[in-house]
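Lab notebook, design round three. We kept the backbone fixed and only want residue identities now. Task for the bench partner: fill in a sequence for the structure below.
Input structure tokens:
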């Protein structure tokens, strides 16, 4: 009994196309899709890890920053928070601190004095 040849093709996210032909096409295609899913998962998880690191860094700067450089510490902390929110994929971000208000939507707005 002769095995028939088969072919399969899969269009994946990011413009990647995987294809396999031959007797073991489905097994190879499964490996292609599994590898792609693993790669996408690693990319998304690593983005959240980097975002958490930036958020923690902002918290550490606020808590343990030098008292005589409070303005610089606040500016850097706000920048790290905005960066963390952007990496995590937030579409809107609003924060108020002593004497300043920060908002970010589709385009970042400059820091304005709090009212």
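Proposed sequence:
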């Amino acid at each position: 009994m002769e095995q028939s040849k088969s072919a399969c093709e899969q269009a994946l996210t990011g413009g990647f196309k995987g294809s396999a032909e031959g007797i073991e096409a489905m097994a190879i295609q499964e490996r292609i899709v599994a590898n792609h899913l693993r790669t996408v998962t690693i990319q998304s998880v690593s983005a959240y890890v980097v975002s958490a690191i930036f958020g923690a860094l902002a918290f550490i700067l606020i808590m343990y920053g030098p008292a005589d450089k409070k303005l610089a510490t606040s500016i850097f902390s706000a920048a790290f928070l905005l960066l963390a929110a952007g990496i995590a994929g937030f579409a809107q971000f609003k924060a108020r601190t002593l004497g300043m208000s920060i908002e970010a939507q589709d385009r970042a707005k400059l820091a304005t004095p709090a009212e």
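Keep this in mind before ordering anything: The chain has one domain: 6-104.
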